[in-house]
Each structure stands twice: as structure tokens, then as C-alpha cells.
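Here is a protein:
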Amino acid sequence: MLKVSNIAVSLDEKDYAKVIANTLNIRKSQVKNVKIARKAVDARRKNKVHFNMGFTFECANEDQLLKTHSKQVSKVKEYHYDKLTPNNQTIMVVGSGPAGLFCAYNLARSGQKVILIEQGKCVDERKKDIDTYLETGKLNVQSNVQFGEGGAGTFSDGKLTTGIKDYRKQFVLNTFYEHGANEDILYLNKPHLGTDVLINVVKNIRKDIEKCGEVRFETKLVDLIVENNQIKEVVLENKEGTYKEKVDQLVLAIGHSARNTYEMLYQKQLEISQKAFAVGMRIEHSQEFINKSQYGKFYNHPALKAADYKLAVHTSQKRGVYTFCMCPGGYVMNAASEENRLVVNGMSNYKRDNKFANSAILVNVTPDDFGSSHPLAGMYFQRKLEEKAFELGGSDYSIPVQRVEDYLENKESKEKIETSLKRVKNAQLNALLPEILNINLKEGLLLMNNKINGFTSDATLLGVESRSSAPIRFYRDDNMESNIKGIYPIGEGAGYAGGIMSSAIDGLKCSEVLLKGER
């Protein structure tokens, strides 16, 4: 089987065998078993939007094609990700987000007994709690957009893009597909799962973990018992109370919102350092506006899905301002997980067919902004912003919103603002962020308006977006082990990943360390 790459394909073309034949100057009848290997929208020229595609196919004269088209045609290599060799140790994984889920899954598929604990609920019960919260403002601090089966990524866009190059990426994609994701994640340039699909996918992965391991929901890690700098036992809490359990290896895949756990681990003297991150707002536009800005006259072509964008600028004060986790055809999520604090995030379903588009728009912050050298100072910085957002929203878990143009001019938005969220309240968002961040965010918005004309017009800000990444980083050595032996901090919450794909890969690397001793 061969692979041909970098073919420009018109939006209306469906006969891919003909496309391959014309590209390679062979008869269409020679091209068999065509499959899409890559598909990306090329919209650099708005008058000629098209797809850039790659295909796998079979052909009678494959050796000759490899010689005559060596730059564009290659032999398809079969992909393997080998199973590991189990041992007789007791391994516990804390947290069922992408890092913990893939660590536990790879251990279980290798025949290793593993215990996966999650302080939140299974995904079906979790969704009920989230729906209740969005309708009524009744928050369950253990079961929400941050906590529960699948982690924070379950109620997001489910993006599978990453800048890292790692052979494990294909295994992550294959695993998602084998457990219910749509096939297009295997070839799209910017694959995404969608919350509606992710809900079933994480359930299916969990069922496979349970074939060799154990999954415990509504079970929280509350203490560690360490002897001679080696983990010996953990203290867990569930609905029946607290109990101790012996462990040989403890994987901390706790996510960036497990703040009580951060504080407990700090007290237990795990080595933690401050880390730069970013804060800001969600910005929401009509999806039609984004489609027109990206696709021009092709904005409503049926072959094109909801358009996205990615913007980054540097202000005159040398701050980075950038968009993050852009959700085409999506919803802003009220993602609170602590009482009397508010935070927003974004999500999309697979079809991305809502009329709104949203993205985080963030300003870089560094430890110099935290006002303290305490290792958890960045977390306390986040909490202050979330407490202010709660206050501005009316102290009933409504999200504070403002028109972008009014935010720029520091004046009140008086008209009712329609958003993808039901529970919102007009507010003066200049009161939300420290003034230095307001200054840079405003300059960043204006610079972005130069890149997408109209970006600051007919747009809404919703605050606060404060959990773009972890505010801390755990120490770990070259084998991913913390300063306490037998404890392995992984994923986004440990400060070593940023998104579903990189977190999942970090979890796979950890599973390899646990059973092979290397990664």
C-alpha cells in the first residue's frame, strides 16, 4: 500500500481515485482501496479555498510509482505500539483525565492490575450535575466541568492537536477511534472529538480498564503516608468515610483544578515550584462572522465545517496576548468547581453547529505578578480573580459579560447581551483583572482586530478564564518520579502537558516507566 501527499483538491471534488490518477499520471482503474490519510483546509487565498489532502491506496505498479514519484509517494508503514510486561506491584492512578486515563488504560491492556480513582462521578451522573448547575446555579463541588470521569477535557471541544512530535500520538488517536470517536480524527489536520462523542468514548475506555483493573468514582485522595521518603499508603475518602490502602507506586494525574490536593501535597513536602501561565476572558462572536473572515466567499460552502482561528500578538509592554482553545460552533461553559468562585471555559459538540464561536483570549502572567514567593501563589492569584468574577456576576454563579467595545472604552453595556450561556449578567469587566493585565489585554484585542477586521465589533467578553494551564509544576526526575520515591506527577495538573493529546502521551510515558523502568 502507498501513500501520496500534498495534493490540492477542490471543495467540490469527491472522486479521490481520479485525483490520485491525475496527480500520478496513471489510469484511474489502477487505483484501488483509496482512504483519506490527511485533510486540511487551505484558506490562505480567500478566492481559492481548497483542501490539501493525502491518501493511501493500492496499485499494481507500486514499485514503479515509488521510483518515479519519490518526493510525493511513500510506502505505508504498519503502526505498532507494543504492550508492556506486568509486575506484581500495586499501582494506583489518581485522576481520570487524559493523563490518568491513558496511563491506567495502557497498564490494564498490558495485564497490569491498576486502581484508578476519581473524586468526581461517572460521566453520565456527572453530566446530570452539570446540567442542573447550568440551569439553576446549584454547584456540586465534586462533580462539575472540572471534576469527574474524563477530566476537564470531557466538557471541552476535545481538541487533539499538539505541537509535540511523538510516535505515541498515533496510538492515542487509534485508541479514541477504537472506543467510539469518529474516523476523521485519524486524518484531519485539526482533529477534535466533541463533548457529545467524548462522553461515550471515555466510558468505553473505562470499561476496558475494568477488565484488568479497578475504577473507583467519588473517591478522593486526602493524605499520604510516607516512610523513609518512600510512599507506603494513601488515605482515601468516599461516601462511607476514610480508609487507608497500601500502594507501591502512586501516579498523580490530578488536573490543574485539584487545588485542595495541591495544598495537601505541599504539606506532605512534595517539591512544587511556581510556573508562568495566562489569564483573561472568553471572547464570543457569531460563527457566521468567523466563517466569512476565514473563508471569504466560500464561507457557506457545504464542504467546509465551522471555521476556527488562532491569533497571537506582543504588546508594547512585551506581554504575550493570544487566543487559546478556540471552539467553533461552540458554547462558553460555566466551569466553576469551588464555592463562591467563577471560571469559564469553552466546549463544542462534534458537529460544531451552534451559531456562536468562542475562544479564550489570554495575557501571559509570570511569578512576578503573584505578589508572593509561595509555591502555590499562582493558585491563590487565580482564586482572587475567580472570587471577583463571582461578585461581578451577582454572587449567584451567573457569568459576568460585557461587549468588547464597551470594555475597551471602560463603559457599561446597557443592552441585553445574547450569549451561548443562559445565566449571565452585564458587568464592568475592567474591575475583574489587575490594571496591568487590562492594559495589555486591550492592546492585544486592538492588534488582533488588525488581523481579523471586525474582531472587536459585535463581540462579547465573558470572564474569567483563569485555568488555561497549571499554576505550579511538581519536581520530577528523568524517570518522572517526584522527590518522594514511588510518586509520579503527570499531565497538565503537574505542569508537564497542555491539552488532551500531550496529557495522554505523558500518561503513556509514565506507564512505560512504571513497567519498563524507562521511557
